[in-house]
Design brief:
This protein is of the alpha/beta class. The protein is built from two helices and three strands; from the N terminus they run E-H-E-E-H.
Length: about 100
Amino acid sequence: MPIVAVAPTGVLMEKLHANLEKVKSRNGVLFVFADSGSHFDGSEQTHTLAVTEPESCYTALILFTIPLQLLAYHVALIKGTDVDQPRNLTKSVTVE
């Protein structure tokens, strides 16, 4: 089972490492978006995707969102879904 993880450097990094080690022990394949301070090493089970080091925790939100959106876009293309017309999407308009 592929698992996508976002790993910005921060106070919860130790807990994230522990959780991802549990996933690896159960033969999960990890795809980790990480900056240089998070110390993730690539292996057969762990694929590390480097993200630019953020200036602060606020800019980290933006920097880590962009690759996740690109991942979702390309997975949708591979699956053959129409990215411009998602199914089960309804529009609501409020008229006053």
